[in-house]
Amino acid sequence: MVVTTEKERESGTGTRYIDCFRGVDLRRTSISCCCWGIQILSGTGLRIYSTYFYKQAGLPIEQAFTMSIVQYALGIVGVFVAWILLPWFGRRTIYLWGLAILAVLLLVIGGLGVAESRSPPPADSSGGSGLAWSIGSMLIVHTFFYDVTVGPVCYSLVAEIPSVRLRSKSIVLARMTYNIFNIISNIITPYMLNPSAWNWGAKAGFFYGGTCVLSLIYTTFCIPEPSGRTYAELSTLFQRKVSARSFAKTHVDLAEARALDRDYPKND
Q: Where in the cell is it found (predicted)?
């Protein structure tokens, strides 16, 4: 670890943040930033305010809190499942399938929210209506699939996509992007759920379902598959301007990769 840290320090010597936006590094930096931003766009706001969300969906406060505990417990299980899937499936594949599933679940939540707003209140609301429980269940399932796919895989992509010499700076910029998106989400989500504000309730699923679909489209055309590639191979593919969808099937000769990759001296 000490040797690795020293080599990374040496490789980053003389670099500036502006270098992250020059040449092929602009593409690599933007992908890293978007990967982290997609975590928020995939519906993190609803998961963060899950207890309040469940309550506004129609569940009693005690049941809403219990659902939140179950939600986070399943999230932990989801991360363990991701550990098993990552060696067998590519990062891009898991990301794509994850976003597709999350988008469907969010749109279903929004649809159930519309149905709930149009249905008469139950005679006995002490246990919550069937629609309220359905909405809560969808968010729990959403959390599980998030923690199997987009949640943990993002960290792998953010670390693998940047060039070696700019990795630390690219990760800083990517995390800043995440924080900006998160601040915006934390501001607008309470307005969505609050009955005295926008009063969207579960219909907020349509908003995050839409941003999730946009994230899916971006991932399809812009996020490549780094799994099984060396950093030299990745740099060569980016320098060749290979499309994201062609990364996995494009052959790279190792000698050519080391000759073209500026992260590695040509005479070593």
A: Membrane
